[in-house]
Amino acid sequence: MSEKKPYQIKIEKQLINVTEEVYLTYYRMNRYERFVEEQDVMHKILYYSGLDTEKMNGEDMLYDKDAKSVEEIAIDHYIFRRLTEGIKELDETEQKIVELLFLENMTEREAAESCGLSQPAVHKCKNKILSKLRNHLNS
Description:
mainly alpha, two-stranded antiparallel ribbon, 2 strands, elongated
């Protein structure tokens, strides 16, 4: 009788005894991985992970259509700074109306009740504030 050959796989430079089923599965999987890599080379497929360096991940090079450009970020920062300056120039009541309408998302009627004014007065004040802020942005 012939003895069965021991099945071994190499893991981290060490031979490990395994069953025939594990041995065959391991080498089928290994061969499939090589087949996929060969197909990628044949079809000239490039993975971003192949561009990894110590300083940058290759996937960081992917275009993000939702990301803001440096110019958009700079413009947003400029507008925010100018609006903040403009709001500081408003009187206390006007600042309160800005806070209620635009930060707390109140309606004109709710803001009017909170400030003790009529809704038409808040509406008129809001338009006046927006005009002042527009002029401040354009100056």
